[in-house]
């Protein structure tokens, strides 16, 4: 790699990291000001609770500031800096509902959301990409049937689709659990019994996620493939009488894959935000479920902490997508 290319790559990497850091600081700052703007701020709620337990006032003030992650009685700039320091060190405050640190609650809930998002999104991407290429290569009734069916599923809201699946598979057919991540009589652990029980319980949530996002990947891939079909190199390949399968997979499929892979990385972050309705409907103890519990119970620190984690996931997803695209396409790095 030439010296100039190394310099351009270093500048591009530094800019990307600086943008991510600025976005993180902005997101954390917004959460700080939201806490201050809320009626009956968390610091006062925690302080009153400690005083009711008989803890001396001065000691209660110190404990409330530590549990809330900030002290509203200090200078706003100092309070903001203290909150930033706490967040970057994993202190998101104390949950009044769960009676535990918010970071600990989120660390327990996040794996369930990550599992649901990763499995459903990856399956939807892979199958949607294949069906999108197939739909683009067909015309007439086949293409119309695919588009019509998927348009129908895409028009159904996620929570309505979840209720339909619960009624069909959980109530009428009784072949899948309708709530919970695992059975109460199963001990959590890396055992075959627990893993199979989790798979059984997560079947309907995964199917709901899959049906909600699958049509988008089919339509996206189909649109890209149709636009690539009009490119000169595809027309030349057809003029050379190359097999249709080879043209679809090699000339069209490979060129449609890169934009879709970039969109996939973006989607991993965005899917965290769409987990609220589905996890709440199926009572899966993920981030969406924790967020709904916190907001419904006016647990401000838990609510804002959950939102903050979702925002950070979106920012990191965008960053990973930008870096990946830059590594694949040197033009993005200015090389």
Give structural notes.
The protein has a two-stranded antiparallel sheet. The longest helix has 36 residues, at 102-137. The protein starts with a helix and ends in a 7-residue tail after the last helix. The model has no long low-confidence stretch (mean pLDDT 80). The radius of gyration is 25 Å and the shape is flat. It has 335 residues and is an all-alpha fold. It has 2 domains: 3-99, no CATH class; 102-329, MetI-like (MetI-like fold, Orthogonal Bundle), CATH 1.10.3720.10. The protein contains 14 helices and 2 strands. The chain has helices at residues 3-37, 42-52, 57-68, 76-88, 102-137, 141-154, 158-172, 192-201, 203-229, 232-239, 244-273, 275-282, 287-296, 300-328, and strands at 94-95, 100-101.
Features:
mainly alpha; two-stranded antiparallel sheet; MetI-like fold; 335 residues; flat; 1% strand
Order of helices and strands: HHHHEEHHHHHHHHHH
Based on DSSP secondary structure assignment, what is the total number of beta strands? 2
Largest sheet: 2 strands, antiparallel
How would you write the strand order of the largest sheet? 1-2
Number of domains: 2
Mean pLDDT: 80
Instruction: Please estimate the helix content.
Output: over 70%
**pLDDT < 50 stretches:** none
- In CATH, the homologous superfamily of the largest domain goes by the name MetI-like
Say what the CATH topology of the largest domain is: MetI-like fold
Give the distance, in angstroms, between the N- and C-terminal Cα atoms. Answer: 10 Å
Look at the structure and give the CATH class of the largest domain: Mainly Alpha
Membrane topology: Multi-pass membrane protein
Protein name: Binding-protein-dependent transport systems inner membrane component
Family: Belongs to the binding-protein-dependent transport system permease family.
Organism: Caldivirga maquilingensis (strain ATCC 700844 / DSM 13496 / JCM 10307 / IC-167)
